């Protein structure tokens, strides 16, 4: 038996064993809490036209902003290997400074506080 056949057989046996263990150990008695839909803290049985808090959107925009920061800073270790890494580090410092100032501004304005 070569190594590839052994690895395929082992992974198949492990997958079948874990799936069988899951079906064997899983709770099969559903309760009303697990069967009810969860809609972000709102009552799912009420009206679908409830006013939606703008704070959800503000938090989402802040998340996207700082997620974009990470995406822009990811290639930085490779950019420092260029012929002029000081330019790259200067632009990176400016980006981090602007985002830090934006975070401080949001913090001062109270945009990060969930409860009023």
From TrEMBL:
InterPro entries given in the database record: NADH_UbQ/plastoQ_OxRdtase_su3, NDAH_ubi_oxred_su3_sf
Enzyme class: translocase
Reaction(s) catalysed by this chain's protein: a ubiquinone + NADH + 5 H(+)(in) = a ubiquinol + NAD(+) + 4 H(+)(out)
A Gene Ontology term for the protein's cellular component: mitochondrial membrane
Gene3D superfamilies to which the protein is assigned, alphabetical: NADH:ubiquinone/plastoquinone oxidoreductase, chain 3
Signal peptide positions (record): 1-28
Domain of life where this protein originates: Eukaryota
Localization, UniProt: Mitochondrion membrane
EC number, UniProt record: 7.1.1.2
Keywords, comma-separated and alphabetical: Electron transport, Membrane, Mitochondrion, NAD, Respiratory chain, Signal, Translocase, Transmembrane, Transmembrane helix, Transport, Ubiquinone
Transmembrane portions of the chain: 52-76, 88-108
Membrane topology: Multi-pass membrane protein
GO MF term list: NADH dehydrogenase (ubiquinone) activity
Function: Core subunit of the mitochondrial membrane respiratory chain NADH dehydrogenase (Complex I) which catalyzes electron transfer from NADH through the respiratory chain, using ubiquinone as an electron acceptor. Essential for the catalytic activity of complex I.
Family: Belongs to the complex I subunit 3 family.
Protein name according to UniProt: NADH-ubiquinone oxidoreductase chain 3
Gene: ND3
């Amino acid at each position: 038996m070569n190594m590839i056949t052994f690895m395929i057989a082992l992974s198949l046996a492990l997958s079948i064993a874990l799936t069988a263990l899951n079906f064997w150990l899983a709770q099969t008695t559903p309760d009303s809490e697990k069967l009810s839909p969860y809609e972000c803290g709102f009552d799912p049985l009420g009206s679908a036209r409830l006013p939606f808090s703008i704070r959800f959107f503000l938090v989402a925009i802040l998340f996207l902003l700082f997620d974009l920061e990470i995406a822009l800073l990811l290639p930085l270790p490779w950019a420092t290997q260029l012929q002029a890494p000081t330019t790259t580090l200067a632009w990176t410092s400016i980006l981090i400074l602007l985002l830090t100032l934006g975070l401080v501004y949001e913090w001062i304005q109270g945009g990060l506080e969930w409860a009023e």
